[in-house]
Amino acid sequence: MRAGFAVALGLSLLVGALSGRAAAEDATPACEVPAYLLATDSVLSKVGDALKNHRPLDILVLGSRSSTIMTADGTAYPWRLQAALREKLPAATVNLAMELRVKKTAEEAVAGLGKILEDRKPTLVIWQTGTYDATRSADPDEFREAVGEGVSQMHKAGADVILINLQYSPRTETMISPSPYLDNMRVVAQEHGVPLFDRFAIMRQWNENGDFDFFSPSPGLDLAKRVHECIGRALATFVIDAARVNPVELRIQR
């Protein structure tokens, strides 16, 4: 119980109040993502069709606590994703809804998913999962089966899917083993032909480059906001590239 509580507390501190350095005066953080970390062979065909035919892009984010920033409305990465897409695709109507699956394993999150998909009718589902399963040491095979079942339900509902894996946290790596869940999400993405946004590798790259200090013991809301801004912008680029659309051409067609 103490170990599980320590892991949950460590992740909560990272998610709700990522900390460390003083804020850069520039509102746009320096958090470049190498092209290979945003490359995918999987295509978001329904997203591409909606954008090219001037239909609304309805995005549903299935998230957890790390999808939010406490007391900071509009600064969590789903809303920064929406803002970035609207900026890059001014001719498009981009709608976003979020369903939080707090403290739920992938298997638990899939329960009731059909009703959510029926009600929301999303063009694109972005499913962030894996962190809670890792903290609970859930069976990796059962995790893979649950994620696969969730993706199948999303496809059956007519939606494109992006999987987002665990967040990177050097402070909790000694307490949890992320590798089985990272590997299994990669397997599911390949089996179902869906893009995997490798949040874990991207955040680790930022930490190693010195863009952010995820090992800092002093929590701070400012760093959380900057990280979420960077995740949102990187995810927007990922969505556009996977949809195989040219933002310049979409502006001309307006």
UniProtKB/TrEMBL annotation:
Residues 1-24 form the signal peptide. The keyword Transmembrane does not apply. Coiled coil: none annotated. InterPro entries: NonGDSL, SGNH_hydro_sf. One of its GO terms (molecular function) is hydrolase activity, acting on ester bonds. The keyword Electron transport does not apply. It comes from the Bacteria. Keywords: Signal. This is SGNH/GDSL hydrolase family protein. It comes from Rhodopseudomonas palustris (strain BisA53).
